């Protein structure tokens, strides 16, 4: 995969970075943890400039968030509430849970979007609740852009600094993302267990 991404960036330049980061948001198996360090290495070689690499990575990431935002917005909270009331008991999920989640997102949504854009494993998925809860598009774009710029900048600079060893970035970010994902899953399981105890 690394060779394919590098070839795309070599042939399309900045446009290749943009397209890869759009795809990374829609197809999470394409990892930004490889795209941006590789682009940073290209900047270190002098083929590109680091500011433009970060800019194109950020733009691609933000554009890639929009389809999932609109999917969430299209289906909306009420349809999901109806689905949860009808089928959600198998997941211990009710319409009231979705309403409460919507209220929580209204209070913390901007921070969730800003910091969540820097968390591998959930970066792409944050667009769905933002759309479901009709987060204002200007706020969604601003916070997505800020979070994406920090993430793209960090990864690109790491690739720039590591030079030919840019692929080592994924080695360190990969395990960290698994730990974060594991903590999120553990938190979800604890939430389900507590909810079942409260219902007993």
Automatic annotation (TrEMBL):
Subcellular location: Cell membrane
Pfam family, any one: VTT_dom
Keyword Cell cycle: no
Superkingdom of this protein's organism: Bacteria
Keyword line: Cell membrane, Membrane, Transmembrane, Transmembrane helix
Membrane-spanning ranges: 12-30, 50-71, 140-160, 172-193
VTT domain: residues covered: 30-160
Membrane topology category: Multi-pass membrane protein
Coiled coil: none
PANTHER family: ALKALINE PHOSPHATASE LIKE PROTEIN, UNDECAPRENYL PHOSPHATE TRANSPORTER A
Name by which UniProt lists this protein: DedA family protein
Organism (species): Deinococcus lacus
High-level lineage: Bacteria, Thermotogati, Deinococcota, Deinococci, Deinococcales
């Amino acid at each position: 995969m690394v060779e394919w991404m590098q070839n795309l960036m070599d042939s399309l330049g900045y446009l290749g970075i943009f397209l890869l980061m759009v795809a990374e948001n829609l197809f999470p198996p394409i990892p930004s943890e490889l795209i941006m360090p590789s682009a940073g290495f290209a900047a270190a070689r002098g083929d590109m400039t680091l500011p433009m690499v970060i800019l194109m990575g950020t733009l691609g990431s933000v554009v890639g968030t929009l389809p999932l935002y609109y999917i969430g917005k299209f289906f909306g909270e009420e349809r999901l509430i109806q689905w949860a009331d009808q089928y959600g008991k198998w997941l211990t999920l009710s319409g009231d849970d979705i309403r409460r989640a919507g209220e929580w997102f209204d209070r913390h949504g901007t921070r969730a979007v800003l910091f969540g854009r820097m968390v591998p494993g959930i970066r792409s998925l944050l667009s769905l609740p933002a759309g479901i809860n009709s987060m204002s598009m200007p706020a969604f774009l601003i916070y997505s852009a800020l979070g994406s710029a920090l993430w793209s900048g960090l990864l690109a600079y790491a690739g720039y600094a590591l030079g030919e060893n840019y692929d080592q970035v994924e080695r360190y970010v990969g395990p960290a993302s698994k730990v974060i994902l594991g903590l999120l899953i553990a938190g979800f399981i604890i939430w389900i267990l507590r909810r079942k105890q409260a219902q007993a």
